[in-house]
Write a structure and sequence with these properties.
Blueprint: E1 7-10, H1 20-34, E2 39-42, H2 56-67, H3 100-112, E3 116-119, H4 123-135, H5 158-167, E4 172-175, E5 182-187, E6 191-196, E7 204-207, E8 212-213, H6 215-225, E9 230-234, H7 241-251, E10 259-263, E11 266-267, H8 277-283, E12 292-293, E13 299-300, H9 310-318, H10 333-339, E14 350-351, H11 354-367, H12 370-384, H13 394-404, H14 413-417, H15 430-436, H16 439-453, H17 469-487, H18 491-503, H19 511-518, H20 520-533
Parallel strand pairs: 1-2, 9-10, 11-14
Antiparallel strand pairs: 3-4, 4-7, 5-6, 7-8, 12-13
Helix pairs in contact: 1-10, 9-11, 12-13, 16-20, 17-19, 19-20
The chain binds glutamic acid.
Glutamic acid binds next to helix 6 and strand 9.
């Protein structure tokens, strides 16, 4: 039995905003660690300076924090990446660019053991090789077959190698793949995998030009030094797995090497290919947790700014590629932590369904108390509807929130569901006017007005001591219905004309609800104004 404390890491490269697929990888790592009381580490893999994007690291950290995924190591309480080792952060620095001196030594260890060699071929020389191969309809690779005819420490005399190392700085250290060996690997999701080493390139591990390791070397060395027990990452890294196995062997760390799990891709809604930002732009959904503005000023929408609750986002993501094997779909982070298991992570790609994402948010919205929703609604009203004509008290907003939450996916929908409660319509839909402001409607309107005038003050918000909506609205409804039935009028004719006056079109909440929240005075004012205008 493995008694070691479970330690996992999320190791993004700061090359841009974190895709929701990346958030899912972080989430699965987090759940897997936490369910065993283990550690979740955040490490920033920034050794490729060509692809570095300013702001991306902060974006990654902010995104994880928004999702409620707090690393045990890597980031301090304020959300800064840790550079100096401390009791809580014994493996700092967690930014690979700050670990530069560590890697050279390990690259040397591989050279000394015959697992790596120096390569002096210039970019132009390699390019020429590539073109030559292409002309013969072949692909060039630096590997077991070609390395003996290239410019490296395997082919050049020792003194020349020494001279080149001392006098030039454009060389690299490459991994020396063993010839014709089968690497036997194990993946927690995919099971046993084997690969012949003759299919592998001799990858560059370290570059003298910038004195930096490449991803492969830095990643293995850091996973070892940080005592990582499980590597959970995207399937795009599966082709690197044989090299990673061989690196562990080469360093003599095979006994303690982590176990691997490669997660399948998130697929487009039609299931054809990887979910990309372009799909989101085309079909109108975010693929990033937070809004992102790139260097060209192009804006990418974020789940947060689109009004998603982080709990709903996380819940939705957890189920994209994993399911507990039951019908349950709504889980808190704690429940997910308890239930998550790598055995139930699916091998096939998980198709993203934007409608289902909205459904999750709707479920979370409905789970909120009316008081909580009223608070969020108030904030929205203040920021987006500051010139509104009317205000509701906290208690009234709470009741209204309870009424409209069934119709909303997002709290922002609250603004569009009933703007007319807060400001009178400035125009009336022409088609609805023609349809509902008929001679019949005109004839009966005086009696309708009289009936609304007769509604007791305590049944609408006009009266400071008004009754709660649950008691008052049925009274208003009863009063109007009885008027309509007594006179043998059509229900729709009256209700739609009133809706047109209150809302501006024949759509909206129930008439009795609208009258309750408008108050008797405002309801009558809107009717009189419409009658005069139309
Ligand atoms: N830096 C790699 C990435 O961007 C990490 C891959 C891994 O987890 O090993 O995805």
């Amino acid at each position: 039995m493995d008694q070691k404390k479970r330690r996992v890491r999320f190791a993004p490269s700061p090359t841009g905003p974190l895709h929701m697929g990346g958030v899912r990888t972080a989430l699965y790592n987090y759940l897997f660690a936490k369910q065993a009381g283990g550690d979740f580490i955040l490490r920033i893999e920034d050794t490729d300076s060509n692809r570095f994007v300013p702001g991306a690291e902060k974006y990654i950290i902010d995104s994880l924090r928004w999702c409620g995924i707090y690393p045990d190591e890597g980031v301090d309480a304020e959300g800064n990446l840790v550079s100096v080792p401390s009791e809580r952060h014994p493996h700092a620095p967690y930014r690979q660019s700050e670990r530069k001196p560590i890697y050279r030594k390990y690259a040397q260890q591989l050279i000394d053991a015959g697992w790596a060699y120096y390569a002096f071929d210039s970019a132009e020389e390699l390019d020429a090789k590539r073109k030559e191969a292409e002309a013969n309809k072949q692909t060039f690779s630096y590997n077991h077959a070609s390395r003996n005819s290239l410019k490296n420490s395997l082919t050049l005399p020792e003194d020349e190698v020494k001279k080149l190392l001392e006098t030039t700085d454009n060389w690299t250290i490459r991994f020396k793949n063993p010839e014709n060996r089968t690497v036997e690997m194990d993946d927690m999701i995919r099971g046993h995998i084997s690969m012949n080493t003759n299919t592998l390139d001799d990858k560059v591990l370290w570059k003298a030009a910038d004195q930096l390791p490449t991803y492969h070397l830095a990643n293995i060395v850091d996973d070892h030094l940080m005592e990582i027990t499980h590597v959970i990452r995207g399937e795009e890294w599966l082709p690197s797995l044989p090299l990673h196995y061989l690196l562990y062997e080469a360093f003599g760390w095979a006994d303690t090497q982590p176990r691997f799990a490669h997660l399948s891709l998130l697929l487009k809604p039609d299931g054809k290919g990887k979910l990309s930002k372009r799909d989101g732009d085309r079909l109108g959904f975010p693929v990033f947790p937070l809004r992102w503005v790139n260097a060209q000023g192009e804006v990418s929408r974020g789940y947060r700014e689109d009004g998603y609750y982080p709990q709903a986002f996380i819940n939705m993501l957890a189920l994209l590629g994993w399911n507990p094997g039951t019908e349950q779909e709504i889980f808190t982070l704690e429940e997910l932590t308890q239930l998550f298991s790598m055995e139930k992570v699916v091998k096939s790609g998980a198709r993203f369904n934007p409608e289902k994402a909205k459904w999750f948010n709707q479920e979370y919205l409905r789970m909120r108390s009316n008081e909580q929703l009223a608070e969020e609604f108030e904030v929205l009203l203040q920021s987006f509807n500051s010139d509104r004509e009317r205000n509701l008290t906290k208690a009234e907003l709470t009741e209204l929130s309870g009424l409209i939450k069934e119709r909303a996916h997002f709290i922002t929908d609250f603004l569009t569901i009933c703007p007319y409660i807060f400001s009178a319509p400035t125009q009336y839909d022409e088609k609805d006017t023609r349809k509902f402001w008929t001679d019949d409607a005109k004839a009966i309107m005086p009696q309708v007005i009289a009936r609304i005038e007769s509604i007791d003050c305590k049944y609408t918000v006009d009266c400071p001591e008004h009754l709660p909506a649950a008691e008052a609205v049925p009274q208003i409804e009863e009063s109007l219905t009885s008027l309509i039935t007594e006179n043998g009028w059509k229900m729709g004719a009256v209700m739609n004309a009133l809706r047109l006056f209150f809302v501006g079109q024949a759509k909206g909440l129930g008439i009795a609800d609208i009258i309750y929240y408008l108050g008797r005075k405002e309801a009558l004012r809107r009717i009189r104004k419409a009658v005069e205008t139309l």
